[in-house]
Amino acid sequence: QVQLVESGGGSVQPGGSLRLSCTSSGYIYLDCMYWFRQEIGKEAEEVAKIDVDHGTTYADSVKGRFTISRENAKNTVYLEMNSLKPEDTATYYCAADRNCHPPFDYWGQGTRVTVST
Predict the structure, then answer these.
(1) In 3-state terms, what secondary structure has residue 92?
(2) Under a CB-based contact definition with an 8 Å cutoff, are residues 8 and 111 in contact?
(3) Separation of alpha carbons 77 and 96, rounded Å
(4) What is the pLDDT of residues 45-93, one digit of tens each?
């Protein structure tokens, strides 16, 4: 059973930066990798996706501020988050899927990001 483990969350002030990491216990080079986020009482939002050819897509709310990347040799996907805003506060989850569409094969346990003064 593949496990995804996120790290890198924390508390930052508005305008700050964080880099999230998601490391898989299995190979990810054939998988689409995703970052989602969910705040309490709100629906989950797909933040970013990276496919096997390193093609990327982003939610409009994070375009120009967030960057998703992958390092297959380390079975790791990253989310670089800059110019953070209070509305970016959420628990961030990574997901992996061989077919690149839901339902996704694997999910991480989440890492919390809080943006506040």
Answers:
(1) strand
(2) yes
(3) 10
(4) 999 999 999 999 999 999 999 999 999 999 999 999 999 999 999 999 9
Pairwise CA distance, residues 112 & 94, whole Å: 12
Looking only at the bridges linking them, the beta strands covering 90-97 and 32-38 are: antiparallel
Neighbours of 15 (CB within 10 A): 10
DSSP conformation class of 99: S
- pLDDT over threshold 90, residue 27: no
Q: Provide the pLDDT for residue 100.
A: 92
Residue 106: closest CA among 51, 26, 21, 19: 26
- CB-CB neighbours of 113 under 10 Å: 22
| Cα 114 from chain centre | 15
The token pair that represents 7 in the structure block: 């790290």
